[in-house]
Amino acid sequence: MILAVLTINIVFVIYLLERRLYRLSKVFIHVVSILFILTFLEALKFKTNNLYIQYLENIIGLTLIPAFYVFSKDINGEKTNIKERILISIPIFLLNIPNLFLFGKSDILLENRIFSMLLVIYGAIILFLSFSNILKANIKKSIKHSIILISSTLLFYISLEILFFSKNTLRILFSVSLSFFITMFILIRRSWLNILDELKDELLMSFSDGIIVLDNQGYVLDLNKTASKILNLNFNNIINKKLEESFNNDEVIFKNNTYYIVKKLSFKNGIVYLFRNITKEMEYSKKHTIADKLFSTLFKNIPDAVAIITPKGKIIECNRQFTNLFKLKRLENIESIVPSYLKSESKLIILEVLKNGYATYETIRKAKDGKSVFVKIRAVKFEIDDKVFLYTIYTDISKEKMLSSKLSNLLEKDPLTDTFNKTYIVKQMGNLSSLLYHSLILIDIKGFKWINSIKGHKFGDQLLREVSNTLKEFTKKEGLDVIISRAQNDEFWFLIKDLDIDPINALEKTKEIIAKLKKDLSTLEQNFFIGSYVFKNSEDLEEIIRKATLSLSKAKESNKEVIYSKEIEDQIQKEIKKENLIKIAIRNQEFIPFLQPISTEDRKIIGAEVLIRWKKDGKIIPPSEFLNFLEKSRKITDVSLQIFEKVMDFLKKNPKLKFIDINISPVQIKEPDFPINYLKIMEKYNIPSQKIVFEITENLFLSYDNTVKENISRLKAEGIKLCLDDFGTGYSSLSYLRNLPFDILKIDREFVKNIDDEKNINLLKAIYSICETFNLIAIPEGVENARQLEILSMIGFKLFQGYYFGKPQSLSEFSKLIN
Length: 819
Description:
Blueprint: H1 2-18, H2 27-48, H3 51-61, H4 64-75, H5 82-101, H6 108-111, H7 113-136, H8 141-163, H9 169-206, E1 210-215, E2 220-223, H10 225-231, H11 235-238, E3 251-255, E4 258-267, E5 270-277, H12 279-301, E6 305-309, E7 315-318, H13 320-326, H14 343-356, E8 358-366, E9 372-384, E10 387-396, H15 398-411, E11 413-414, E12 419-420, H16 422-429, E13 437-445, H17 448-455, H18 457-478, E14 482-486, E15 491-500, H19 503-521, E16 528-536, H20 541-558, E17 562-565, H21 566-587, E18 591-599, E19 605-616, E20 619-621, H22 627-632, H23 636-653, E21 659-663, H24 666-669, H25 674-684, E22 692-696, H26 706-717, E23 721-727, H27 734-739, E24 744-747, H28 749-753, H29 758-773, E25 777-780, H30 786-795, E26 800-801, E27 809-810, H31 811-818
Keywords: Membrane, Transmembrane, Transmembrane helix
InterPro entries: Cyclic-di-GMP_PDE-like, EAL_dom, EAL_sf, GGDEF_dom, Nucleotide_cyclase, PAS, PAS-like_dom_sf, Rev_trsase/Diguanyl_cyclase
Protein name: Diguanylate cyclase
C-alpha cells in the first residue's frame, strides 16, 4: 500500500511540474509535500509502532483540510489573507490539545468518538465553505461538479474510516492522493484554457490593427482597443450585443480622418473583422496619381521630341513630337535614327548617362526618310522597380544651325578660298566631342613666298584656290566630317572630327588620310609640308595648336610628314625610361642565365637550355617583359654576351654537362662579327666547341642573307652545333633541313601537349623518321608527365625537355641538381 501511495505521489509531482499547475494554485505544492511526509512517517510507524509518530501525523495531516479551502479560493481567483488562514487553522490545534496532555497514552483524536465526530464536522464545514467558492468560480460547470463530487466522496469515506472502520492511515493517504491526482487532471484542461485565453487576450490587445469578433448571429464576442476607437464603440456597451454595421472584404472605409482597409475572416462559429490603417498608402497613391497625370500631360504636350529608352537603346515610349520629327510609325531601337558614322557616338552618350546620371550633346540624327536633323540631346537616367531607363529630349536646332552657318559665311569665311578662317576653326575645336579623338592636320605650301615673288600674287592666289578646292573634293570623296580653314597666308588647317574612340585607331586613320591627301595634292605639282596632332577635346586648346604647329616645324626640318601624338610621346618617354633601366641593368650585370635540363628517358641530365632572366630588386622578371625591347633596341647582343660568359664559367666548373643550348636572336646572327665575340669567350674559358649548341628560330629565314649564311658557315666550321627551335610550326619547311646544316631539332610543345591524339602521334613518328633520315637529334619540348615520356620513348626519341625533368632554375640550383 505504501508503494501505491508513493507511486501516485511521484506521478502527481511529475504532472505538477510538467503542466505547471502550481501557477494555478500553490496548494498543490503543499498537498504533495504533506503526502510525501505522511507516507514516510507511516512507513516509520510501521517499523517502530511509536505512538508519537501518530500524533505528528495528525498535526501534519489535518493541515490538508484548510489547504482545500485555500485551493477553492485560488480556483475562484481570490486570495486568502493571513487572518483568514489563521482562523481556519485554529480548530486543528484545538482538536490536538488532548493528545498533548495525555502524551504517550492513546490517540484521543481518533480513539474518542466525540473528538472523531468533531473532526468530521470540522471537515464538513470547511468542505461546505470550499464548495461555495468553487461554485462561484469562472470555470465550466462540469469541472465544478467533478471537483465537488470527488471532494464529497473523499470526506464521506474518511468520515466512515474515522467513525466506524479501523482508521487505516494508509488507506486514507491513498484516497487523498488519488483524489487530488484526479482533481489535478481535471484542472489541467482548465490550465490550458487559461493559457489560451491569456494568449488570445495578449495578441488581440497588442495588435495595432483593429480586431472585432462576431458570432454567426452578428453579436460581438470580443474586440480590442483599436477597433473600439475606429468604430466609436464602448467595450462594455457592445459586448454580447449585435453590431449594427457590416463590412465587405477589402472594403476601404474612412473613419476619424483615417483610411482603413477591412479584411473579413470567417471561422466555424462566426467572423472576424480586421481594420488596417492605409492612410499613408492612400496619400501616396493620390500623389502618385497626380504625378502620373502631370508627367503624362508634360510628356504629351512638351514641344520637343521625347523618348524613354532602355540602356540597350530600345524605345519603350515616345511622344507624338518624336514620331513626327523622325517620321517613325512604331517604336523602334534608338539606333534607327542614328547616322552610320555616329553609331559609336550614340553608344558613348548612353554610357555617359549611365555613369554620370545625365548628358547634353549637340549632334546630328536622321529621320526615317533619310533627312538629317540637327538636334540638342538632353538625357537623364532614372530607375523604376530597380530597372534603369533614360529620359531623352531631342530639340530640333536645324534652323539655328542654318542661321549660324549663314552668319559664319559672312563673318568667319576666307573670301579668297571660300574656307573658314582661323577664328572659326579655333572656336569649333572647343565644341568637339570629349569622348572621341580628333585630328588637326596643318598643310603648308613649300616655298610659297618665292612663288609669289617669282610668279606673282595672281598666280599665288590661284594656287591657294586650287589647294582649297582639292581639299574640299578630297573631303567629299572620303566622306569625312572636316572643317577646312586657311588659317595663315599659305597654311591650311584640316580639322577631322570624331575619328575614333581609340587613340591608336585614330592615329592609324590619320596616317591613311595624310597618305591619300598627299597623293591628291601631288596633282598640283607643288611640294607640301604636312604636320598633324591627334587629340582629345579635354586637352588645352593652346597646347593642341602648339603641338600641331611643332609637328609642322618638324616636317619642314625632315622634309616628310610628321604626326605628333600625346600617346606616342608618352610611349617614347616610357621607352626612354625602360632603355635607361636596361642600360643600368646591363652595367650592373642584372641579366642572369637560368638553365632548364635536357634529359634522357631515365631522367639523367646531359644538357641544358639557357634562358635569360632579369633579376631586379630581388625579383625575377620574365623575358616577356624585356626581350622584345632588347631585340628592338639591339641591346640583345650586349646582354647575350654577358649571359654567355656566365654560362661558360659554369660549364668549366661542371664538366659533367655534355652540352649547353644557347638561344641566338636573329638580330645577333645578322651582325658581321657575331661568331668572333662568342668564340673569344669560349677560348677564354677553354670550352670545347662540341659542347655548344646555338638555337635559332625559324623567323630568321624570312630575312636570310649573305651575312647570316657566312656566320652559320663559320659556326659550323668551328664545330658548334645548330638547333632549329619550335619545329613543326610557323615557317617550317623541309627545305631548311635539306639546305641548312642543322644538328638538332626542337619539336614544338603543341605536339606533346596533345599526344593522346592519334594524328599527333603519327606526326611525331613522321618527324622522328625525318630526323633519322637526315641524321638529326630530335628533342621534344614540353614533356610534363610520365605518360608523355612513355609514348615519346616508344616512338624512339632519346632526349627530352620539359617540367617533368625540371623547371628553369638559377645556376646555383642547377649545380645542386646535377651534382
